[in-house]
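Journal club side-thread
Mid-discussion, someone asked how the predicted structure for our own chain would compare to the paper's figures. Pasting it here so we can look after the session.
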Amino acid sequence: MTTEANKEGVQIPWQRLTTPYGRGTELPALIEQGAYGEIGQLIEHQGTLWQVTPWVLSVLLQQLKTKQPSEVSLNEIVLYKAVVQALEGHPLADAVHVPDMTMLLDEAYLWPEDEAEDEEAWEEEPAGYAELPFSSYYYYSYLLLQEAVPTFERVARENGEIADAVSELIEMISQLK
């Protein structure tokens, strides 16, 4: 079982969370490699956020806090911008959501441990994509990005190469409601 803890020490069962292309099993390795383009395709697809999105953001934004601004790449900022664009037009501050993000890892919302059941799970309405959890993916992604604004501001001040893109990201986040 491949899990990785986020900032709260929550073990993330990546192989039981979905992306537009299947399970999120490969995400820990992609995060470790800084493969932001590939990660972006797994957390946002055609304007839709996925079950893995708030968990990936939780890990990446925690890592971002510890990076030197010069270590932050434009590809990472592009990833965050794609998520913000997917959030636009969704009710966020008043969105129906689970009371705590860790509840999204309750057994009721996770995919079966046995991957042989995946096709059947997609044919039904998957529990992780009912209104409450699905809306929660957007809500918690929004909150995580809001909380990261001071970190983004520091990067914009101290990394001139990507300052314009980061400032644009901050502006996009500030316009979300």
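Post-session note: The mean pLDDT is 92.
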